[in-house]
Amino acid sequence: MNSRIFRLIVFFLAIVLFTIIGQPAFCDPLIKGPYLMLAAKPAIPPPAISPKVVDNTAMTIRWEGDGGALSKGSCTLEWGETLAYGKTPIKPDTLEESPPWFSYTIRGLAPGALTYYRLICKGERYTGAFRTPPADASALTFFAYGDTRGDNDEPSSQKYVLMQMKKNIEDDAAKPYTLCLHTGDFVQRGQVKREWDRNDTKNNSQFFNREDWSRWFLSHFPVAGVLGNHEGYRQGGTDIADFGQNFKNYWPYPFYPDDRDAFYYGFDYGPVHFSVIDGNDRINSCRKDAGTCRETGRNATVAGLKPGTTQYDWLVNDLGSTKPWKIVAIHNPLYAATGPRDRFRDAQELITNLHNLFKAKGVKLVLQGHKHYYSSRVVDGITYLTLGGGGAPLSDSDPKLGGKRIYQFGRFDITGNSLTYTIIDSSGKVAEKNTITIP
Predict the structure, then answer these.
(1) What is the pTM of this model?
(2) Integer Cα distance of 35 and 354 in angstroms
(3) Do the Cβ atoms of 227 and 261 come closer than 8 Å?
(4) Is residue 23 part of a domain?
(5) Which of 14, 297, 406, 420 could form a disulfide with 243 if both were Cys (CB 3.0 to 4.6 A apart)?
């Protein structure tokens, strides 16, 4: 072959290859976020104001850089009452150096204010909106769902649930971007970091999925999460020392007790006091026949949720709130459309301890997960809703006990002494609608 022709062919092939693979691909600089988290009022020296009181004039925005791509000052944040934004004051604080975590709390907003924001990192723009918690109002709309994990061989259906939630909200002229309760089991193996933030075709249950449906949800709602049993799983079992620590790293709620292994907290939000309980049994669930303990660690459920124990005594005080509505969130259902959680050796003791306390303290609504269906049961005037159809493979339930085998989320509308809950399935159909009242 003529050398000149050969060089032309090589040059042509080089151009083709550069065109195919040589162009810089889009590189998302964020692994997680931006996502929202409720903020607490700053602590003030004596006479002290507790740092664990929700600040209804603030919201925290968090994000994580991809592979160390971000450094302090490489992002800017704008916000305002309109899409014109207008404020760009930050050089964000690095929470962790590797990987780089960033967080900024916007303060000085009006209670219940609708705020638009835009995060700009390395030229990429991420937009969202939120409402600050309302003042002591008598009306509130919030949302809840749970068990969004996939399975080892089956991806999550969370996408379709959140798409319907988005439609429900966008069809509402008031755009109730408020709060979403998650009743636990965010991912399949909570101790495996990549399961929270990596997209793949086999198991797309990653909660911080970078697809549009996930980012829309996380950029519009502060999520108040419950610790699920899968938040302690890793490949082949659990690590006692790190049970739930990925969950706590991603959701470092300022309302936790000052204890690394405490995953319960409470907060006021408008007319509601929410009590979020750690109901995981980490001792009694050892599977000795299989040679492994699926859930082990400290603060075991029965040991930690009976009179005289730290979490129970905290809960007694927490439910002493003077808010008109007291709502409890727990992963493990007390009353569902099947039997009590099968791994609880002392399930009845747990039910007796908590249900009697709820009755004594005036709780009217308990939000639960773990069982992969929807159910509604009323026991002694307390409504127990199981919202475990957020994406995990569905399981069977007893229709006679209020069970429905559907993917779903709940919308809760409070006006004065009435709370109406609407359960919407992944096709957009209303599966159930009921009203609860308080005196």
Answers:
(1) 0.87
(2) 32
(3) no
(4) no
(5) 297
Domain boundary among 118, 135, 152: 135
Q: Beta strand pairing status for 382-387 and 365-368?
A: parallel
> 169 and 112 in one domain?
no
Of 70-79, 240-249, 290-299, which gets the smallest average pLDDT?
290-299
**Same domain for 130 and 151?**
no
Q: Which of 417, 435, 275 is nearest to 358 (CA)?
A: 275
Share of the chain above pLDDT 90, in %: 50
135 within 8 A of 113, measured Cβ to Cβ: no
Number of domains making up the chain: 2
Q: 123 and 189 share a domain?
A: no
DSSP per position, 56-73: TT-EEEEEEESTT---TT
End-to-end CA distance of the chain: 95
For residue 222, cis peptide bond before it (omega within 30 degrees of 0): no
Alpha carbons 238 and 196: distance in angstroms, whole number: 16
Q: What's the average model confidence in pLDDT over 368-397?
A: 95
Judge contact between 328 and 316, C-beta under 8 A. no
The residue behind tokens 């930690």 is 304
Residue 355, in any domain of the structure: yes
Q: Using the 3D structure, point to which of 82, 110, 135 is the last residue of a domain.
A: 135
- 10 pLDDT band (50/70/90 cuts)? very low
